[in-house]
Write a structure and sequence with these properties.
CATH architecture of the largest domain: Roll
Number of helices: 2
CATH class of the largest domain: Alpha Beta
Strand content: 35-45%
Order of helices and strands: EHEEEEHEEE
Shape: globular
Structural class: alpha+beta
Distance between the termini: 6 Å
Strand order of the largest sheet: 2-3-4-1-5-8-7-6
Length: about 140
């Protein structure tokens, strides 16, 4: 299991990721836009979101750092734009950590299957720390 930093940006994620990749000498990042995600007829994608970054990852000195733009209309506050991502192939461990951290906290998205993960969810714990949970390779 790993805990990774997840940084959010307000429309300038592509610029930030390319900057960090250059500074830290990483491989060219793979950038996934919101427009590349499978369409959901219940939630049509606004034009201004199509080219925003949904997910990118850099390996910086052995640590995975993940990035995304916030979705248009979602709150964004500089200084509060970081979360911790718990990544594991052990779904039971993810469920246990989620259950523990949601006590007194606020669930953003219950654990569920998504197009990118067998098990994904997010919450803010009782101390205001935002956590993301993702089934996948560490």
């Amino acid at each position: 299991m790993a805990v990774n930093a997840y940084l959010n940006f307000n429309g300038n994620c592509r610029e930030a990721v390319e900057f960090y990749a250059k500074v830290f000498g990483t491989e060219k990042p793979n950038l996934m836009t919101f427009g590349e995600a499978p369409p959901n007829p219940e939630y049509p994608l606004p034009d201004e979101a199509k080219n925003l970054i949904m997910h990118a990852q850099l390996d910086i000195f052995g640590s995975h750092v993940m990035f995304s733009d916030v979705f248009p209309g979602m709150p964004f506050t500089v200084g509060s734009n970081i979360s911790l991502a718990l990544v594991s192939n052990d779904i039971d461990a993810l469920k246990s950590a989620f259950a523990g951290l949601k006590e007194g906290g606020q669930v953003g998205m219950e654990l569920q299957e998504t197009f990118w993960s067998k098990c994904y969810g997010s919450l803010s714990d009782k101390f205001g720390v935002t956590w993301q949970f993702n089934h996948g390779e560490v």
